[in-house]
Amino acid sequence: MVLKAFFPTCCASADSGLLVGRWVPEQSSAVVLAVVHFPFIPIQVKELLAQVQQASRVGVAVLGTWCHRRQESEESLGHFLEGLGAIFSHEPWLQLCRERGSKFWSCKATHRQVPASLGAPGQDQVMLIFYDQRKVLLSQLHPPAALPDHQAGDATASAGGLAAVFDTVARSEVLFRSDQFDEGPVRLSHWQSEGVEASILVELAKQASGPICLLLACLLSLISAASTSRVFKLWPLSFIWSKLSTCEQLRHRLGQLTLIFSTQKAENPAQLMRKANMLVSVFLDVALGLALLSWLHGKDRIGQLADALVPVADHVAEELQHLLQWLMGAPAGLKMNRALDQVLGRFFLYHIHLWISYIHLMSPFIERILWHLGLSACLGLTVALSILSDIIALLTFHIYCFYVYGARLYCMKICGLSSLWRLFRGKKWNVLRQRVDSCSYDLDQLFIGTLLFTILVFLLPTTALYYLVFTLLRLLVVTVQGLIHLLVDLVNSLPLYSLGLRLCRPYRLAAGVKFRVLEHEAGRPLRLLMQGALLGP
Amino acid sequence: MEAEQSFSDICGGRLALQCRYYSPSCREFCVSCPRLSLRSLTAVTCTVWLAAYGLFTLCENSMILSAAIFITLLGLLGYLHFVKIDQETLLIIDSLGIQMTSSYASGKESTTFIEMGKVKDLVINEAIYMQKVIYYLCILLKDPVEPHGISQVVPVFQSAKPRLDCLIEVYRSCQEILAHQKATSASP
Q1: Best interface-test mutation with B: which of A515, A518, A521 has the largest number of B CBs within 10 A?
Q2: Is 60 exceeded by the pLDDT of residue A155?
Q3: Does the beta-carbon distance from A125 to B111 stay under 8 Å?
Q4: CB nearest to A2's CB, from B1, B28, B95
Q5: pLDDT over 60 (residue A145)
Q6: Pick from B82, B101, B115: which is nearest to A161 by CB?
């Protein structure tokens, strides 16, 4: 198999030294993690590697030598480097060399244990693959951490292919912790050798997040314990709670906040992304809610809203009354049954009258109620929208009642019609066998049945029309409520953190890798550049 | 080493196949599709603008004309960025994997990389496409559950759609590398 050497791009300009990394025999690939520079004492290098191996459970070893010829007079360096092969024995031994001012490298891999019948120690074809250590670490393409019951020792080689390479780089964080300004015995070159990458804000946030998370987790657990107490399980309250969408939204938000501030860390990048998305959506929600609050409470808008509410309710009731008068007359040229029409029409008109009186009774308190409800916008825009949806549901409660009456009447009529139609044909519904059976009726049963059937058939258009009109009204209200809920769901579930990452730090969201063949010269080893492949356009 | 040959696609348009042999273990095949023809572009633009002008004479609203220009521009940009593929490349690297790249007319490139461990074989398959029977090159992926099964068939050169003679060239070249790969991976 062709020998693949994964070389970090940051070490391409480093001084000569030893290559340190991991050899994956199944893939025949050598993953170079860092370069150890001169001067060094071999014992100390071996100690450092043993420490790293113990801390990270990755089989780090000296893989070979790296020679960067800056001047012509470094021929002796080449011989010195060859001698190092005897001190640090590794199978196969890599020798990478780069000339000054040349883009092309020379690589040799020698096996010492090849049987003597082949003559000189065997040489393999070597392929160089450059990778960016920082991007590989940050894009988190490595598989999640191994199970804790795996024995300590070499890392599990069950990860196949390129996943093994990413796994190696990710686990060797210990090696990357020392930079060139440290006073250690060994001088290393890797992506953090110019200085360990860290941000003061991130470190401070990490330190502060522990106690804050604990405090908030306690608070949230208190709130959720209070909300699930026995008081709220009593029948009227539990029924109301289940119907109001505000309670639903509050419960959802409470669940999300509990998840965000829970004290256990996220296990894998997907969970971390989910937590971050939730946190950003909560922030956006609260920010929009506070903006809405400041807009509502400025310039006495609540007073204007409250003043406009009662006339609007009156107007809606008037329109409904006009509609009922129209239905009681000859709607769309259809001829209704006068008696039933009058009964239903008057029943609904009385209902509307009751409703209007109720609204007028409530009108002095509306402004104060609206003001207090407007305060709830500081909990988030979604809560304010849910409250709006609930208010619409409460204000159009009479339309809901009309729909229920119309539907019930129509349903009863259809049941009666179907049963009498079966009687008309001489059949019966067998409840035991759940099917239609024939039945012999007496003459008087047949007579009364047919009479009732006729009455119901002639009253059908009236009931059907009332049912149709009120169903359409109810659909209108449901559509408006549905649009508000759609908006609430959008704010709840839009993954803003991921979208932001895609715009600002696209390499964090890499889904795979892509290779590019770099300039090639015949006789030299092939050079490839490995980059993260991004999702989307 | 580079070699360029010209073939034709299933509709008769001209294609150019560029084979690059970087090393005995790495080869690249680049199929370039026919360019966007000026004739079809002019025809579509004229149709849209004539229709818009017809609507304008009916409605006397000049917004229609500006809307037509806007739509034409957006449509062209969208077509170049999302639909029109200029070149399709197949890069096969022994013991690493197979990479397929499509580059669009606007410069966008979309890449798919399949690791060698997942590749079972590369074959030429027949398919019924509209009223024709065509040949296409595809990569067969191994099934992790069943050792002799195939989990997925990934077609290559989907928008270029070259004919059998071009596919045979690419097939022979790739099989040399795959055979070498199988020989070395079978031996411990």
Answers
A1: A515
A2: no
A3: no
A4: B95
A5: no
A6: B115
Lowest pLDDT segment from A86-95, A405-414, A422-431, B119-128 = A86-95
Assign A19 a pLDDT band (cuts: 50, 70, 90): confident
Whose tokens are 């034409």? That residue is B72
Please, what's the largest Cα pairwise distance for chain A? 126
> What's the pLDDT at A121?
43
- Decide if pLDDT at A122 tops 80: no
Would you call A526 and B112 a contact, using CB atoms and an 8 Å cutoff? no
Minimal Cβ distance to B113: which of A512, A522, A526: A512
> Touching check for A519 and chain B: CB below 8 Å?
no
Q: Out of A189-193, A274-278, A336-340, A352-356, which region has the weakest mean confidence (pLDDT)?
A: A189-193
A118 pLDDT above the threshold of 60: no
> CA of A107 to nearest chain B CA: how many angstroms apart?
14
Instruction: Give the pLDDT confidence of A249-290 residue by residue, as tens digits.
Output: 888 888 888 888 887 777 777 888 888 899 999 999 999 999
Q: Which residues numbered 128-167 in A keep a CB inside 8 Å of some CB on B?
A: 129, 160-162
- For A318, the token pair is 């008037």
Side chain identity at A356, as an amino acid letter?
I
pTM to 2 decimals?
0.75
Look at residue A147 in the predicted model and tell me its pLDDT: 43
Residue A177 and residue A190: Cα distance in Å, rounded?
Answer: 10
Q: DSSP for A210-229?
A: HHHHHHHHHHHHHHHHHHTS
| Encoded tokens for A435 | 């099917």
Find out whether A42 and A87 touch, Cβ atoms under 8 Å.
yes
Task: Give the chain A residue whose CA is nearest to the CA of B106.
Answer: A537
**What DSSP state is assigned to residue A519?**
P
Is A125 at the interface with chain B, CB within 8 A? Answer: yes
pLDDT category at A297 given cuts 50, 70, 90 is confident
Between residues A231 and B95, the one the model is more confident about: B95
C-alpha to C-alpha distance for A165 and A90, rounded to whole angstroms: 19
Among B20, B21, B26, the residue to mutate for chain A (most A Cβ within 10 A): B26
What is the per-residue DSSP string for chain B?
-EEEEEEEBTTS-EEEEEEEEEETTEEEEEEEPPPPPHHHHHHHHHHHHHHHHHHHHHH--THHHHHHHHHHHHHHHHIIIII-EEEEEEEEETTTEEEEEEEETTS-EEEEEEEGGGEEEEEEEEEEETTEEEEEEEEEEEPSSSTT-EEEEEEESTTT-B-HHHHHHHHHHHHHHHHHHHHHHH--
Supply the DSSP symbol for A334. Answer: P
- Find the range with the poorest average confidence among A122-126, A143-147, A492-496: A143-147
* Identity of the residue numbered A379: L
- Taking 70 as the threshold, does the pLDDT of residue A117 lie above it? no
Question: Please, which residues have CB within 8 angstroms of residue A406's CB and are 6 or more apart in sequence?
Answer: A463, A466, A467, A469, A470, A471
Would you state the structure tokens that stand for residue A306, as one six-digit string?
Answer: 């409250």
**Can you tell me the distance from the alpha carbon of A46 to that of A479, in angstroms, rounded to the nearest whole number?**
72
A28, A517, A533 ranked by CB distance to B113: nearest: A533
pLDDT digits (tens, 9 = 90+) for A61-85: 888 888 887 765 556 666 676 777 7
What is the predicted ipTM? 0.84
Taking the CA of residue B108 as centre, how many other CA atoms within 13 Å lie in the half-sphere pointing to its CB? 16
Query: CB neighbours (10 Å) of residue A152?
Result: 6
Chain B interface residues (partner A, CB cutoff 8 A): 1, 22-26, 28, 81-82, 91, 93-97, 99, 101, 108, 111-113, 115-118, 181, 184-185
CB contact (8 A) between residue A127 and residue B26: yes
